[in-house]
Structure formats: structure tokens, C-alpha cells
Amino acid sequence: MGDTDTFLALRPSLFGLAYRMLGSATEAEDVLQEAYLRWSMSTGGQVTSPRGYLTTIVTRLCIDVLRSARVKREAYKGPWLPEPVETGRPDPADQAELADSLSLAFLVLLEELQPVERAAFLLHEVFEYPYDEVARVVDRNETSCRQLVSRARRRIDARRHRFDADEGHGREMTRRFVQACATGDIEALKCLLAEDVVVWTDGGGQVRAALRPVIGPHRAARFLTSVARRVPPGASIREVTLNGQPSVVLEDEGQVTIALTVDVLGDQVIGVRVVTNPDKLTALQPGHQPELGGR
């Protein structure tokens, strides 16, 4: 049978893959539990590459989950955002790469890809698997995988909006943004917002949220300050790093109720993502921190 130590050593990377595939820490954890059960029942001594074996299991389980989740996500109330995860403050050398492959904006773009296409793209572009290994994992020939990745890359690059990955600047801009919202200073907030700024709020039909993206600095400023006015008096704001980006979470009575991430380009905020759906805040609650790995 597959030994536990081997699985635990590979777990951070496997979770990183599953999370990027699914956009959900909760679903990624479920996939890893199932992968461990299959690994523990395997004949570990006959597995020549535990990494390849487990990557294949996790990838194929994620593909099955995505196929079953598409109908649910199409019926989702309001904008769908990934489940944010806390990544801690990465080394500056890794900041840009982590934010680029893990940001909520990037994960939303991945939703436009078909499950197998998404798997091939992530395995090759993010986790740097060669095409022959990608082919074995997704059970396609190498030529097909090259085509899948090339098509996915074109679609992602056409929609991807770049933002600054500098942690210090992003943190300062986030503080200024939060301060303007908290004080209700609409003019100061409008000065921070780009002309094409977009605000997405994900309440999942469980918490009050905008059912459509809020576009433009005037509407966004009014909307954001109105949201800030509804924050309970005893709530506290904590600075965190979510998905490789400077962010904040709002805690009320010991529970995280809001996760907010802003995309910064230069001295302007170009995107705001607010997650209030309680089902998507589980990974941010005390004692529920997943171990997120890259490659």
C-alpha cells in the first residue's frame, strides 16, 4: 500500500494543483482525501513515480468534479468568484509568479476553459510538466495536449489584465482603499479607482451582494461606501495575503465574514473582488488553513 509519508510530502503540490483546477479549497480538500484513499489501497512498491501516480489521480478527480459543477455554476446567484485562500507573505522573488498563477482574476479566467483543457494548461504552464507527462495524466496524445495548451494560452492571454505584483505598493494601495471606504470618503475613493474599474461581489445568494458587476468609479465608489456602512461596529479588519495578493479580511465575533482583494495597476485600483458567501470563507477561519503548494 502507498505510505503516508510519501503522500504528505507531495500534498502541498497536489493541493496547489487541485485548488487551481477547482477554484475551491473545500473541494480541493475533498479531492485529496479521495486521492489518499486510492493511494493507500494501491500497491505502493509497484508505483515507479508516486508524484506522477498521485498527480494523475488528483487531476482526473478534479476533471470529474468540474464536469459535475458546471451546471451548478451556471445557475449561481450573482458573480462566481473562487474561494480565497491565505498564502502568507511570499518571498519577493516568488511574489510575481505566485500572484500570476494564483490570483482570483486568473482563476476566474480558468473557468472559461473546458476541464481537460484546464488540466493540460495548468500542468504544463504552471507546474511545468513536459508534454509527454501531461499526455499520460489526461489520457490524450502529445499532439492533442500541445493543441489544448496552445488554445488555452491564447484564450487566457486575450482576457488577462496585468496588475502590479509589488507587495509593498499593493499593501499601501489596499490600506488607502480600505480607509476611504471605511470613512465614506467618496471623492478620495474615486481618485483611487480607474475609469474602467470593476467590482465583483460573491454572496452566493446567502448574503446580500450585487448580482452584477459594478462598473466605473462613480458607481463603484457609491456602492463600496454603502457596503462599508453596513459593517458591524465591533468588527475588525486584518491585513492578509490572499492568493498571492495583499488583501484584507473582516472579522466579526471571531469569524471571517468578508474577504476583499484589490487589483492595483500603478496608482489606481482596476479591480475589486469581495467574497461574502460563508461557504467560501471556510478556509480563512481559525484552524482551517490549508497548505498550498506550487509546483
Write the layout of secondary structure elements.
Elements: H1 4-22, H2 25-40, H3 50-74, H4 92-102, H5 104-110, H6 115-126, H7 131-138, H8 142-159, H9 167-183, H10 186-192, E1 193-202, E2 214-215, H11 217-229, E3 236-242, E4 245-252, E5 255-265, E6 268-275
Parallel strand pairs: 1-6
Antiparallel strand pairs: 1-2, 3-4, 4-5, 5-6
Helix pairs in contact: 1-2, 1-3, 2-3, 3-7, 6-7, 6-8, 7-8, 9-10, 9-11, 10-11
Can you tell me about this structure?
By secondary structure, the chain is α+β, with helices and mostly antiparallel strands. The chain has 11 helices and 6 strands. A 6-stranded mixed sheet has the order 2-1-6-5-4-3. Strand 4 and strand 5 form a beta hairpin. The longest helix is centred in the N-terminal third of the chain and has 25 residues, at 50-74. The model has no long low-confidence stretch (mean pLDDT 90).
